[in-house]
Design a protein that fits this description.
single chain, 261 residues, 7-stranded mixed β-sheet, 11 helices
Length: 261
């Protein structure tokens, strides 16, 4: 495991640190920096200073976007240290412009809330100076957080909308299923169980290679209950609303990126 520096122990940083600890990362290979030592102490770690980050193999930045560039300006990094930024809206070029070394390896990461339970999906984009060893080190330290997907940085606004904001949109759908069950006479507890188990079963079918269309047709009897419900969704413009929701979220991600420059 590479020598890791983590700057920021808020919600995201704490979730990352928890996953590392739970997965047996050697504490001696970790340096955690935060302005609030008590946050780090909750994880049985002593807070480190920025100067102690010199020599780390990977520097993970999990602070608020508006603090990223200011923080980087205060750190002297080894030329071989790969910077991993998880700040929304801060592009690789913005980060590189702040550094003394124009050839510093940089990776931009877009995580989602699933990292809390090791089930996140993390989009990665590297600059041209990140060689195979750098890329592998980054993927190794992110493995306890979930699945990684290497993409072009230009795709990150769409990633932010789908993977970053997506859990909020999906939770509304889940909640609506539960409320629908209650409206049909089920108890809240039974409705929640049925909704979540049904969603889990559907996801497992998809993972097994069953297409969305096959799932729909397999439970749609002629003039039956499912087709009546699907008809109602189509009349309400359900698909279009979801697409528009993601489009607006993606556009907003792009705006935040421009505002942070």
């Amino acid at each position: 495991m590479p020598f890791i520096g983590l700057v920021g122990c808020g919600n995201l940083g704490s979730a990352i640190l928890d996953r590392w600890i739970e997965n047996g990362v050697d504490p001696s290979l970790l340096r955690v920096v935060d302005n609030h030592p008590e946050k780090v102490a909750k994880h049985n770690f002593k807070v480190s200073s920025l100067s102690e980050l010199e020599g780390v193999d990977v520097l993970v930045i999990a602070v608020k976007p508006w603090n990223v560039l200011e923080m980087l300006a205060q750190v002297n990094l080894d030329p071989d240290t790969v910077i991993v930024s998880m700040a929304a809206g801060i592009g690789i070029k913005n980060i590189a412009a702040t550094l003394q070394n124009p050839q510093q390896p940089i990776c931009r990461v877009m995580p989602n809330i699933g990292v809390r339970v090791g089930a996140g999906v993390l989009a990665l984009a590297f600059n041209d100076f990140a060689i195979a060893e750098h890329r592998q080190n980054v993927k190794d330290i992110l493995k306890p957080l979930g699945k990684t997907l290497e993409l072009k940085e230009k795709d990150f606004d769409a990633v932010t909308a789908l993977a970053g904001s997506g859990p909020a949109f999906i939770s509304i759908f889940f909640e609506s299923l539960i409320m629908g069950g209650i409206a049909g006479g089920l108890s809240a507890e039974n409705s929640r169980t049925l909704a979540l188990e049904t969603v889990e079963a559907t996801l497992r079918l998809c993972a097994a290679g069953v297409s969305f269309q096959e799932i729909q047709f397999s439970v749609s009897s002629p003039a039956g209950t499912t087709i009546a419900g699907l008809e109602a969704l189509e009349r309400s413009g359900f698909r279009g609303h979801i697409i528009e929701c993601l489009r607006l979220a993606s556009n907003r991600a792009a705006e935040l990126g421009r505002e942070s420059v």
